[in-house]
Amino acid sequence: MKRQDDWYDPMDPGPADPGPSADDGWHEPPADYDYRDPREAGRGAGEDDRQAGRPAAGNAEFRNRRSVQTDLFEAPVRRPQPVKRQPGQPIGTMAEAQELLRKYYGYPDFREGQKQVIECLLSGRDTLGIMPTGGGKSICYQVPALMMSGTTIVVSPLISLMKDQVDGLDSIGVPAAYINSSLSYAQVEMRIRKAERGEYKLLYVAPERLESERFLELLAGLVVPMVAVDEAHCVSQWGHDFRPSYMRINELVSHLPDRPLLAAYTATATDQVREDIVKHLKLSEPQVFVTGFARENLSFSVIKGENKRDVLMGYIREHAGEAGIVYAATRKEVDQLCEYLLRQGVAAGKYHAGLTDKERADAQERFLYDEVRVMVASNAFGMGIDKSNVRYVVHFNMPKNMEAYYQEAGRAGRDGEPSDCMLLFSPQDIHIQKFLIEQSVSGPERQAQEYRRLQQMADYCHTPQCLQRYIVRYFGGEAEEDCGQCSNCVSPDMELTDITLEAQQIFSCVKRMRERFGMTLVASVLKGSRNKKVLDFGFDSLSTYGLMRNRTEKDIVDLIQLLVAEGYLQLTEGKYPVLRLSSKASDVLSGKERVVQRIRLKPSAPVVQDVEAELFDELRKLRTEIAKREGIPPYIVFPDSTLREMCGVQPTNPAAMLKIKGVGEAKFFKYGAFFIEFFKQRQG
Ligand SMILES: [Zn+2]
């Protein structure tokens, strides 16, 4: 299959029309779903042996969920007795779920959004969770899975993601496995047999597997209390990455002897996609929750009209030693930017689809293991990477829609620690994205939809409102108050300027041009340009001609964009959007309403480093040593947030250590002693 994940590159001829399934940036294309994770190299066939050799903490414990046992390492029970659950019958209480969360994950409580979703599942109802990636959605099906007898099947579209999830579950002592094309037939059979014996609580399955009738029959032999569908928008032809195999999920459900509970998750905002999910997965009277889009630890900022490289370099210098991702729109830009950073002495790596599999795997691994601090990447990077200590994500170019942006930006701060998401905007970014829509999306209806979504992305860059609030509303959630930390909220370096007069000039020009032209031409007329189009239409005779001649055309376009983002002007859909006045504009024209703009005065001051930085660094070193010994990425040992809390508490005994968030029982047994010893030595 042809690689298309970096179709984004406008300089690259590539396929003219990748078709509906590959038209998206934020999801890797089918070719890449089979991309094998570097960490898997050399494990392969041995994986089952490794899992077999480990004492199974499996269903023995969960067979009777009412008696929560503390012994994690109990011998496996060969045949779990299926406990039949009637449809709609409750599964358990939130208190029980919380106990499991504490015991396995080491956290005292669920996040607000997780609570609602889990509560609904526990009441025995199908659930559709609209949650961002990184909003903690895996816990929303993992914890309920721990409370039910049998093996929960998780349909997940990405091999590397499954691998990461199974590693994560493994590290906290929950038995899980995955089945996808990276395994041989014999390995698949072995895993199914183990699942039949009830040795896994969760089984991750690639949707393509469901195409095989034989495979469905194999699964029908399992006790499956729940099917969780990750990235459920893949079931919709309206979704940005339709995958036909998702249509088979329903087939899987009907093959099972008892109808399992269904839990679906997506981060897509459009209603049409949501309706499709309910319809095609045949969710039964599902509750829908929009949740988790407000990530309090993320500070968003949009920076316009400054030299992007200078801003980026300044930021990286201020945050030396922290891990970050820099997304750029094209391969060429990734190459050049990475080279530039290396020249500036930054430990940078790069990742895009033009590199070989090996180059990509190496780059990814070096980033995961904290050897490379800054990853410069195209949108091909990041799917299935759960590195929790990414401290910032910078977008060197504006992405094509809010879904793509939030997916990528949301890779910052998975551990809940304060992190930054910065977008460097230039109007050129809009042109690039339009070109790409034109090249890659077929059909006027779909194109119109993509243009609309692009406009909403551009609005984000121009809105003077709270950015966090804009995001939450875009995805259909409610934001009660401003975040207080985005670049629009925190603005000591911002100045409010009254631009009512300029707005009136622009509106009246749009009106005099009969609302039939786009921004560029309106700006040319206001500037008093003598370009051919202006003269051909005779616009030089309009009373608004040259009204803003003391500004640059770029400035005027920026102002128009601000007025669009604020809803005073509307842009029609399509390739050549036309400016129209909205009803809000007439209040400004009549002098009833005033318009203000925030203007950035100077770059923000560097963030003050915290006093525990040194101790934190030492803990990070200890974590890296442990990770190397175990052959896992450092963040799997403990996330940054856990190390931070240790800095404050400095635990020197088991009880204190177990109170730290992120220290569950399994991890305590594995790593607790190293850290206790470290603090003892430090204090003694
Ligand atoms: Zn804000």
TrEMBL record:
<dbReference type="InterPro" id="IPR001650">
    <property type="entry name" value="Helicase_C-like"/>
</dbReference>
<dbReference type="InterPro" id="IPR004589">
    <property type="entry name" value="DNA_helicase_ATP-dep_RecQ"/>
</dbReference>
<dbReference type="InterPro" id="IPR006293">
    <property type="entry name" value="DNA_helicase_ATP-dep_RecQ_bac"/>
</dbReference>
<dbReference type="GO" id="GO:0009432">
    <property type="term" value="P:SOS response"/>
</dbReference>
<dbReference type="InterPro" id="IPR011545">
    <property type="entry name" value="DEAD/DEAH_box_helicase_dom"/>
</dbReference>
<keyword id="KW-0378">Hydrolase</keyword>
<protein>
    <recommendedName>
        <fullName>DNA helicase RecQ</fullName>
        <ecNumber>5.6.2.4</ecNumber>
    </recommendedName>
</protein>
<dbReference type="InterPro" id="IPR002121">
    <property type="entry name" value="HRDC_dom"/>
</dbReference>
<feature type="domain" description="Helicase C-terminal">
    <location>
        <begin position="308"/>
        <end position="455"/>
    </location>
</feature>
<dbReference type="Pfam" id="PF00270">
    <property type="entry name" value="DEAD"/>
</dbReference>
<feature type="compositionally biased region" description="Basic and acidic residues">
    <location>
        <begin position="24"/>
        <end position="52"/>
    </location>
</feature>
<dbReference type="InterPro" id="IPR044876">
    <property type="entry name" value="HRDC_dom_sf"/>
</dbReference>
<dbReference type="InterPro" id="IPR018982">
    <property type="entry name" value="RQC_domain"/>
</dbReference>
<dbReference type="GO" id="GO:0046872">
    <property type="term" value="F:metal ion binding"/>
</dbReference>
<dbReference type="Pfam" id="PF00570">
    <property type="entry name" value="HRDC"/>
</dbReference>
<dbReference type="InterPro" id="IPR014001">
    <property type="entry name" value="Helicase_ATP-bd"/>
</dbReference>
<keyword id="KW-0413">Isomerase</keyword>
<keyword id="KW-0862">Zinc</keyword>
<comment type="similarity">
    <text>Belongs to the helicase family. RecQ subfamily.</text>
</comment>
<dbReference type="Pfam" id="PF00271">
    <property type="entry name" value="Helicase_C"/>
</dbReference>
<dbReference type="GO" id="GO:0005737">
    <property type="term" value="C:cytoplasm"/>
</dbReference>
<dbReference type="GO" id="GO:0006281">
    <property type="term" value="P:DNA repair"/>
</dbReference>
<dbReference type="Pfam" id="PF16124">
    <property type="entry name" value="RecQ_Zn_bind"/>
</dbReference>
<dbReference type="GO" id="GO:0043590">
    <property type="term" value="C:bacterial nucleoid"/>
</dbReference>
<dbReference type="GO" id="GO:0006310">
    <property type="term" value="P:DNA recombination"/>
</dbReference>
<dbReference type="GO" id="GO:0003677">
    <property type="term" value="F:DNA binding"/>
</dbReference>
<dbReference type="GO" id="GO:0030894">
    <property type="term" value="C:replisome"/>
</dbReference>
<dbReference type="GO" id="GO:0043138">
    <property type="term" value="F:3'-5' DNA helicase activity"/>
</dbReference>
<feature type="region of interest" description="Disordered">
    <location>
        <begin position="1"/>
        <end position="67"/>
    </location>
</feature>
<feature type="domain" description="Helicase ATP-binding">
    <location>
        <begin position="118"/>
        <end position="287"/>
    </location>
</feature>
<dbReference type="Pfam" id="PF09382">
    <property type="entry name" value="RQC"/>
</dbReference>
<keyword id="KW-0227">DNA damage</keyword>
<keyword id="KW-0067">ATP-binding</keyword>
<keyword id="KW-0234">DNA repair</keyword>
<feature type="domain" description="HRDC">
    <location>
        <begin position="609"/>
        <end position="684"/>
    </location>
</feature>
<keyword id="KW-0347">Helicase</keyword>
<dbReference type="GO" id="GO:0005524">
    <property type="term" value="F:ATP binding"/>
</dbReference>
<dbReference type="InterPro" id="IPR032284">
    <property type="entry name" value="RecQ_Zn-bd"/>
</dbReference>
<dbReference type="GO" id="GO:0016787">
    <property type="term" value="F:hydrolase activity"/>
</dbReference>
<dbReference type="GO" id="GO:0006260">
    <property type="term" value="P:DNA replication"/>
</dbReference>
<dbReference type="InterPro" id="IPR036388">
    <property type="entry name" value="WH-like_DNA-bd_sf"/>
</dbReference>
<keyword id="KW-0233">DNA recombination</keyword>
